[in-house]
Specification:
Keywords: Transit peptide
Oligomer: single chain
Strand content: 25-35%
Helix content: 10-25%
Protein name: Folate-binding protein
CATH topology of the largest domain: Gyrase A, domain 2
Distance between the termini: 35 Å
Organism: Phenylobacterium soli
Shape: globular
Number of helices: 6
Number of domains: 2
CATH architecture of the largest domain: 2-Layer Sandwich
GO biological process, one term: iron-sulfur cluster assembly
Length: 278
């Protein structure tokens, strides 16, 4: 049962185990995602923000029978644990590292999960399933994380290499369009700024994929619309990259270091914004 699927272990991700009687209310007031209705085996995408509403760390919260896992960037796990501990105060919450391996299986689509430990990626169906201690399905091709990054770029889905830490707002990284923010859940750290940006429609910049000939420009390279700055290049590879662009300056001729580029709006983004896919 391969379904032409590709399996890849995600060594860049690590887990934090969260438990105790107050774990739901504790996380509910911290992260952008609702956890009150989270079911065992379900994964939801979210983030931890600064009080000013800037994006600190992305995360997936994965429901368990006695709590949850936080699926985070491995290099940031210690810093996230430290921040969660700072917020814990008198809450009856248990926090600790968990070494259960994380993997992905893609592309996705219709049909049941491929076995125990697999749960749909909550961002887009095409991103497949995330696995927590899950077995590699028989017949699946095996790839590394670089192949997964290429798939994400083809879909126009940004990742941690694009947003960094404490630089941007989560809406600029499309968290609102990738099921990463629950605007109905009530207060969380950074909620006021996030809700105001969404409510007032003041989102002037977003992450979108760009296409070009040849190798990717250096991260931070300036995108120009004539003589006007239209954005900057983020992570990339041969022929494509993610970019943070000004939405009011991307419809004309664009260039990076004298090279022509074009900005793409993925179908999922157009659908989420209520625009017609061209």
């Amino acid at each position: 049962m391969s379904r032409n699927l590709t399996y890849a272990p995600l060594n860049s991700r690590a887990l934090i185990a969260v438990g105790g009687p107050d774990w739901r209310t504790f996380l509910q007031g911290l992260i952008t995602q609702d956890v009150e209705t989270l079911k065992p085996g379900e994964a939801r995408f979210g983030a931890l923000l600064t009080p000013q509403g800037r994006l600190l760390y992305d995360l997936f919260v994965v429901g368990r029978e006695d709590g949850c896992w936080l699926d985070v960037e491995a290099e940031h796990r210690d810093a996230i644990l430290q921040r969660l501990t700072m917020y814990r105060l008198r809450a009856k919450v248990e926090l600790g590292k968990d070494e259960t391996p994380v993997a992905i299986l893609y592309p996705g689509g219709e049909g049941p999960a491929p076995g125990a430990g697999w749960t749909p990626d909550p961002r887009l169906p095409a991103l497949g399933w995330r696995g927590y201690g899950a077995e590699e399905p028989a017949g699946a091709a095996v790839a590394d994380e670089d192949a997964r990054e290429a798939q994400k770029l083809a879909l126009g889905v940004p990742g941690p290499a694009d947003w960094g830490s404490d630089r941007l707002y989560p809406i600029e990284a499309n968290f609102d369009l990738l099921n990463g923010i629950d605007f109905k859940k009530g207060c969380f750290v950074g909620q006021e700024t996030t809700s105001r940006m969404k409510r007032r429609g003041t989102v002037k910049t977003r992450m979108l994929p760009i296409r070009f000939e040849g190798p990717a420009p250096e991260p931070g390279a300036e995108i120009l619309a004539g003589t006007l700055r239209a954005g900057e290049v983020l992570s990339g590879r041969e022929g494509g990259a993610m970019a943070l662009v000004r939405l009011d300056r991307i419809d004309g001729e664009l260039a990076v270091n004298g090279r022509p580029i074009r900005v793409e709006k993925p179908d999922w983004l157009l659908e989420a914004l209520g625009e017609n896919a061209a």
